[in-house]
Amino acid sequence: MNTTLRRTCTAFLVTFGCFLAATARADVLHGVGNIGDGGGTASPLKYPGMLVSERGINFGGPTFPYVFAQIGASSSSVLNPGNQVDQLVGQVQTGNVTLALMSIGDNDWFPVAQDIATGALSGPALTSFQNLVVGNIESAVTQVLNAGGEVVLGGFSNITDSPAAAAIYANPTFRANLEGALSAADDQLIAFAAANGIPFIDFFGLEKMVYDSGSFVVGGVNINLHTVGPDPHNFFQDSLNAGTVIRGEIANLWLQAMNEGYGTNLPLMSDLEILTLAGIGNEFVGESFAPATSFGDFVEYVPEPSGLALLGAALATLALVRARRFRRWS
Description:
The chain is of the alpha/beta class and about 325 residues long. About 50% of the residues lie in helices and about 10% in strands.
């Protein structure tokens, strides 16, 4: 065997190994972990609970032991020794968790939102803040990937619309400043996700679409964008936390991202399912939001070359070398 053919065969074997590794991703839902900001995440009215009850996602059992999200968590706190990232990585290394749903950083923005909106925090100082938060998130994701886990990365919410930021969204200039900063930081995360071949969820984009449209109608039921309280007809249940119906749509974005990134083929939840979870299924008129919304528009995914594509390229190269050798021997 000459040197060229030997090298080609070696490349083929390496590529075939990549193909086998890609095939192994079919078991990506063996165990699913979650980190970020959250509390009571075993609740059936938060998106992990919805993914369990409606689609059978395995977060480790009834108490959700693979969910490490904590109230008030920031991009820095999840990296503290023994905290969320370490706990998640430990579960990945033991083989319990194969896929991590990671959405981190909203709490970093609230303390500085007013300063960003008014322009008090801008220029190099704002860039430095964005780079710090994005860098923390990239570090968290990289640790999970290096441990052998797969990742779906969620971006920042459009906190401009939250009742806690009412003074901001009432002023068009303030609103534009804050939305611009959030969008710029999301762009950094999108580029990072693309470079690592993982799906990214644009929560900001979905929320902005809803608020810019001026209405949120699900199953024919109007969900109020401006009143706040525990009533399931409200978009926000308090000054910071979204209500059940929009959480159902957030769950749909996680499903869409898993489907696009890992071929899981999980059906998205219908309007009726979401309204039923919210306790107002009896008001359902007909599917409205789900069929009118392209959830794929809010998932960014640039896949790495698939194992099958690489295998095909290797086989084509091997055939070409053999053909050339045959012509020389003829």
